[in-house]
Amino acid sequence: MNLPKNGKMMLTVASLILGILFISLLKTTGAAGSTARTDTTLASLIQIGQENEQLKNDITKLKEDLSKFQAGQNASKVVLEQLDAAKRNAGLTKVTGPGIRITLDDAQDRDINNEDIQYYVIHEEYIRTIVNLLWHGGAEAVAVNGQRITGNTEIFCSGAFIQIGQTRQMPPYVIEAVGDVNYLQSALNFYFWDRLGEYQEQYGITRKLEVPTEPLVIPAGKTQQFRYSEPMKEAK
Fold it and tell me: Which of 201, 187, 102, 179 minimizes the C-alpha distance to 145?
């Protein structure tokens, strides 16, 4: 059989390596004429080679498992980060930061016989308007009397109370907002804020704006219970 030049060279090199290995085995065993010990050594080497091959396979498998585990960890981390962001956007996370505090209160001295008695008290529309102005000014979180204002928080009059987030609130009403202080204050430079100032002068209601030096703490909002709605399944 005629082998190509490269094939002959590879065969020569392989034969040379086998010869060197065989001589080394003889020297290692110290028994040049002992066929039994040579066979035993060869068998041991073959077993070691097989074990090494198995170890290589195990190492490869472990590396694959480690890569999958790390990929799973990264995926889980991304999911958790997205979940945290969604909870913050929904107002379900307690937050802290710089901001402003607004206090509204009924007039302490009021004439119950006065036909303009409505001007002596704080109405729910005052709170709603101010909250909307704060959102317009870039507020990242708003609370009224410790009740976090979220997308489904109701603010309406309930007799002698103002209902906020399924709780009955009475004056004074403290509105806190976290965000850029300058933008929040600028958002209040609206005719409604000036009108409250006029009510303060004429009827004695309280309209106070503060910029606390310490960070504000806005509590987490309440989770909504879903009984009738469910997520739509995407069509395949």
Answer: 102
